[in-house]
Amino acid sequence: MSMPMRELGRTGLRVSILSQGGAAFGEQYGSVTLEQARATVQRGIDAGINLIDTSPYYGMTRSESVLGEILAGGLRDRVLICTKAGRYGVDQFDFSAKRITTSLDESLQRLRTDHVDILIAHDIEFADNFEQVFTETADALHRLKQTGKCRFIGMSGYPLGILRQAVERCSLDVVISYAHCTLQSTRLIHDLLPVADAHGVGILNGSPLSLGLLTQQGPPPWHPAPAALKAAAQKASEFCRGNGIDLSYLGMQFCLAEHRVASTITGTAQVPELEVNLRAVGQVPDLKLVEGVKSIFREAGFLDYAWESGRWRDSETGAPSVV
C-alpha cells in the first residue's frame, strides 16, 4: 500500500504518517555505518516517508552531518527536513536568540542545504528562563522564518503544560511531543491536541514506544520511569507475547492509526527495523489487545502517568499513589 499522508496543522505540508527520526544516525542507540544509514534513508523514501527529523544534539552533530552527506546525493528534494536548536548535549542548553540563529547556520552547513522545512526549539523544559523561551527564543524563530532559512517553526518538549503555553503564546506552526501518544499514555490527545487545533498548530508524535519502555527488551538503564512502571511494561510485554504479538509492534500500530496526529517519528538506522515499522502502516490494531495492555498500566496506577523532565513543573507531572 502507498504511504498515507496527513495535513500538518495549517502549514500546507502533507507529511507521511511515519517519519524518520535522526537520533539513530547520531549513534544514540549503537554504532551505525554511513552505508547502513544511507540504505535506511533510501528505503524510507522509496516507501513514501517524506519527513526526516534530526538535531545537532543527536550524536553531537553527527546525525546532521550523516544526513547531509546522504541527502546531497539527490535526495534532498524528496524530503522535508526538521532540525532543532537550543540543545547541544545532555546538560548543554542555550535558547538565546544569538545561539538559535548561529545554530541554524551551522545546521544548514552540516545538512548541505540552504534551508530546512521546520526549525524546532529543542526540549524547552530544560531552559533556565521559560519567559525567555516564550519571548526571545520565539522571536528569533520568527525572524529566521522571515529570512527563508526555515519555512516553519516550532518547539519540542516532554511536559505538555509547557507545550500548551508555547502554542498559546508563540504563534508556532508545529510542536513535537514525545511519549504522550502511546499505549501507556494518550495525554497528547486530550491535554494538548485541543489547544493545538484551536491555534492551527500541527503535532508530531515522537517516541511512540516511550523511549524503549514499550519494547520486549525493555527500556535502557537511564530511562526516567520508576521501577514499578517498568515492571508494568514488562508485564504488558509478556501479555502481548502470550497473544502472539510483540508489544512494540502493537504500539506502532496504535500510534500510526491515530489520525489526529500528523506523523509519528521513530528512529532507526537499520533497514530490517524500518521494515517492521513500515509493516505497521495502515494496520488496525487489535482493540482487545490494546485494552488489555492499557488495563495492565491502569491496574498498576500508571496509565497516563508522566515523569518529571527538566525544570518545568505542572499538575500533569507526579508519581501516582502506588508503592
UniProtKB/TrEMBL annotation:
It holds the Pfam family Aldo_ket_red. It comes from the Bacteria. GO terms for biological process: dehydro-D-arabinono-1,4-lactone biosynthetic process. Residues 20-281 form the NADP-dependent oxidoreductase domain. One of its GO terms (cellular component) is cytosol. InterPro entries: AKR, NAD(P)_OxRdtase_dom_sf, NADP_OxRdtase_dom. Coiled coil: none annotated. PANTHER family: GH17980P-RELATED. This is NADP-dependent oxidoreductase domain-containing protein. It comes from Tuwongella immobilis.
